[in-house]
């Protein structure tokens, strides 16, 4: 990579990070190139239509960058048993990351707002597929059929809480997510959801040994 390419990559990365923070704070509709430029302390022209020809293109870049991280998060959770434990680990890690990286919060909020609209979103990591896979692995063979779009219900409830709980402490956020997930999972036919969620959530709040 030559100097010009490196400068372009650095500029692109800075714009994506700034845009992610603005999308996290204001949502898709209320975020503009002008607002992103102002947050960066730069003129609107510095955003560069040659890099991002539209707000949608910029939103896609924010989501795509985060989807790469979500793929890595899911891979890192492979040592957890498939099912509730793996689902809890990935969702908790994602929720806590939104507190540390505003651009992660931007991707979460964008997905929450755009998934059920006509706006096209990238599919580098499909949350609904991941959640359905873990629910199928967690449920006993004789459990009743899952409700329609059970995975969407769990995802929307989780992302809704995460995007509205930015001022809580990490332990409070984990506790609130745990209280959200357990009754939902029990209603999906996973009777021991409280124990299985707790096995991951308690380790998270204690931190590494």
From TrEMBL:
Coiled coil: none
Cross-referenced Gene3D superfamilies: Tetracycline Repressor, domain 2 (1.10.357.10)
A GO MF term: DNA binding
All copies of domain HTH tetR-type, residue ranges: 15-62
Pfam families in UniProt: TetR_N
Keyword annotations from UniProtKB, A to Z: DNA-binding, Transcription, Transcription regulation
Keyword field contains Transmembrane helix: no
Keyword Lyase: no
Superkingdom of this protein's organism: Bacteria
InterPro entries named among the record's database cross-references: Homeodomain-like_sf, HTH_TetR
PANTHER family from the UniProt entry: TRANSCRIPTIONAL REGULATORY PROTEIN (PTHR47506:SF7)
Name recorded for this polypeptide: TetR family transcriptional regulator
Gene source species: Curtobacterium citreum
